Fold Altronate oxidoreductase.
Amino acid sequence: MQLSKANLQHIKNTGIQVPDEKLFNLPEKVLQFGTGVLLRGLPDYFIDKANKQGVFNGRVVIVKSTGGNNDDFVQQDSLYTVCVRGLENGAEVKEDIINASVSRVLTAKTDWNAILQCAHNPEMKIVLSNTTEVGIQYVEENVLTGVPESFPGKLLAFLYERYKAFDGGADSGLVIVPTELITDNGDKLKAIVLQLAQFNKLEDGFINWINSNNTFCNSLVDRIVPGRPSGADLEAIENALGYTDAVLTMSEPFRLWAIEGDEKVKETLSFYKVDDAVKIEPDITLYKELKLRILNGTHTFNCGLAFLCGFGLTREAVADAHYSVFTKQLMQQISNAIPFEIDEAVKAAFAKNTFERFCNPFINHQWLSITVQYTSKMKMRNVPLLLNHYKKYNNVPQYMALGFAGYLLYMKPVKKEGNAYFGEYNGQVYEIKDDSADYFYNLWQNHTAEEVADAVLNDTTLWETSLAALPGFAHAVKTYMKNIESGALRAVAMLEE
């Protein structure tokens, strides 16, 4: 039996709570660019939760911009299951939710007119997006002829359609909340939309309407949503549910959506009322720093080293006695170096939460997936930590130095196939998915490990500063590289001695 509206009565008999019929008649209030699991597991999760409590009372129209079809959503009447699994305050969490927040899924290439028609709906008040970090980029294109290629182009065309449909009325503006993982995503998206409007020579009245009547919110999302499992894991879940679901998604219990906004934004995004994990505040720097440094920073200092230690999953690493100690000490070092004033109790609570998330026995979070664009992550997340640590303590942050040594050794391509680069460690070949892979490939071809370390640490084009200028850091990194080459896990254990 497949999940669908027609089968809900049968599914109800299996014990899972099914959506009330009245939810399917709620008006469409949200246009969402992206069908990905993060959007379905976080924003749409909150909207569904609010609808079921009679708070937000609106549904989501999803725009699918990438190739492929939307058959899976159509066959299931846009219903899907969120399976929440993990640990929360030491207790195991297991919850299955049939999400009924999505009304329909439209494909940009074939349903563009229907998408533009949504702009004529007076109930439509919100635009959400998650088009990956590269989605928010400026592409010069005519947005009024055919389907724009870029996400900002599609958004501009939709806003222009909205402007014309309501004659630029004061109440016709939208709240636009991108969730792409880039700093100040709302500000950047607005700047690109305005630049593209100028390129398309759209009238001043429309540009004034964008500025005066629409709100672009910076936002931060945090939830591990690995998507649909496979094999025996999927079979076990669907057997327990009593139905099949082509777009089922797994999710951890932890959730956070921080949005910069005022009372007007709160009024529009009223779903925030049903879950404290939705934070709408004038400044979300606190949440950005906690996530960027303690969660993401720990991931980045860890991922290469953990892989070299032979761990495939995050939970495997923290289950090891030595690596568990290393990770906790690294988190403490990172916490002390955050370049933003945060209450110590708040940082400690976030770190405790983060470590518990690493331990989640239900989520297969791969270290290799965290290494994608390793260099840019190291620069954005961790270089500010290094600099601030030296500013505060003026000594070598040993745990960070070991993590950086792991990064350098992981970024050692041993072969190139076309535009792909591959490393090898203990007989395992892995692809290095990093824009700097060619740089490291050429560097490692002609230099020793110590020479590579010196070159990388001195490279101001990579870091916009010289990491070699940090007293003792280069020496520590080179020492740890030697230790790792003699045995990665032993190098970790040595920090305890």
Summary: The first strand starts at residue 28 and ends at 33.
